[in-house]
Amino acid sequence: MRVAAIQMVSGPRVGENLAHARVLLQEAAQAGAELAVLPEYFCIMGMRDTDKLAVRETPGDGPIQRFLADAARELQLWIVGGTLPLVAGDDAHVRNTTLVFSPSGECVARYDKIHLFRFSNGTESYDEARVIEAGREPVLFDLAARDGSSWRIGLSVCYDLRFPELYRALSRQGADVLLVPAAFTQTTGRAHWDVLLRARAVENLAWVIAPAQGGLHENGRRTWGHSLVADPWGSVVAVREEGEGVVLAELSRERLQQCRTQLPALSHCVL
Fold this sequence. Notes:
- The chain has helices spanning 14-30, 51-54, 63-75, 164-172, 186-204, 253-262; strands at residues 2-7, 35-37, 78-80, 84-87, 94-101, 107-112, 118-120, 125-127, 140-144, 150-155, 177-179, 207-210, 227-230, 236-240, 245-250.
- It is of the alpha/beta class.
- Strands 1, 2, 3, 4, 5, 6 and 15 form a seven-stranded mixed β-sheet that branches. It has a six-stranded mixed β-sheet with strand order 9-10-11-12-13-14, covered by helices on one side. Strands 7-8 form a two-stranded antiparallel sheet.
- A hairpin with a 5-residue loop joins strand 9 and strand 10 (150-155).
- The model has no long low-confidence stretch (mean pLDDT 98).
């Protein structure tokens, strides 16, 4: 199955971001991708954290969700909508939500980001919990590819990457592929992005698709980029360092089975 990890440098205006996303999704479809995954915050990287509140949507209704559904249907793609802001339990917070749309335009899965990023080094400071309400449950969905093969796909977002227990929970539920849409900072990305993604692939003997924000944003934030696809042995098979673009790769069930047969570590878990 051909897949696309889409890298963006999103700004504060939703309409402009959706227009950029549409061009990149069309490029992925024309290249033969069946599954396209957008990065975290693909629809808005605001000037302030609270800008998300003004564009939050209710589940099943809103321009961002309509955009994803229409693009999936028109391009005949499975689209994983990075993250978008959905209503939370109070007016001061949103859920940072991944929605999955099938080629029919139907929303088939929802995952609310569980782990909320907090970081301060004296120069940069981030605290997602100020505006985001955490999710609670791991989520997977099943994808039937055009060749008749079936893929079980586990969802995660950005900071989740630092919590291997989430990925082991997805693995125990049969995940073949792990998705990690992200907006890693340049500081943390340079230090940890590649090694964490490859570790999650190795630990779970699973394909990893990690689309990222990658560049200097209008709000002054610089994200690390390096959107990539890693195979179940932890080898990076495709990567884009910076700037908007589409990272294409072929997922092979044969490669998945080869890795899991030669090193049956998943069957050795005792905890």
